Amino acid sequence: MLITKVKVGKVTNLSEARYCAGMGVDFLSFPISSIDPKTYQEITGWVAGPKFGVEVESATLASVKEYKADFIEININQIDGSKGLENLIVSLQPAEWPEKKTNLLLSKPNILFLELQISSINDFVLRIIHDITEDFKILLKPSTSNQQPANGNWKLETLLPLPIDGLSFDGNEETKPGMKEYPLSEILERLEAIF
After folding, report:
1. What is the 3-state secondary structure (H, E, C) of 8-42?
2. What is the mean pLDDT of the chain?
3. Strands 5-9 and 111-118: what pairing?
4. Partners of 118 in beta bridges
């Protein structure tokens, strides 16, 4: 069992979905641009445990209902066009929060989490995290070139004590069916045994 909620996005194949589910990931999201409704149903039919969602680009908000997803992931610029959609995970950068806060609060009943994309932890980011937690649950998405915890300027031990509800990472493409390395395996294994 993982010590915090984890979402893995950009999942495009059954191998990765099953691996993440086996590791105890809570949320898996699939990009609509890469996965059609039939493939989505096939993959999610073979996997048990996580909640399944779709990542929606601006032009495809209308087709989201075909997926029968547990949640819908959008970016902050799509919030105005998301009326009528529920169980949203809204992705944004810390600098976007002050300007978009009012619109997000108007949609608050429909938002599960804000996914805050960060490249570092500094005073500004800490202030934003604390401000957001007054109204929303946060999934923190640390961004580095290859998402390995030792690289970049963040460490799991630094992130986990923050007032967040979980972490978010991206999956990667499968090079050949059944032949896949799992860059997330190191992170997920550390989240099992970090404390």
Report:
1. EECCCCHHHHHHHHHHCCCEEEEECCCCCHHHHHH
2. 88
3. unpaired
4. 142
Residues facing residue 124 across a β-bridge: none
Q: pTM of this prediction?
A: 0.90
The structural domains of the chain, ordered by start, are: 5-193 (3.20.20.70)
pLDDT digits (tens, 9 = 90+) for 77-105: 999 888 888 999 999 999 999 999 999 99
CB 165 within 8 A of CB 89: no
Contact 90, 74 (CB under 8 A): yes
Contact between 32 and 12 under an 8 Å Cβ cutoff? The reply is: no
Distance CA 32, CA 36 (A): 6
Contact status, residue 60 vs residue 32, Cβ threshold 8 Å = yes
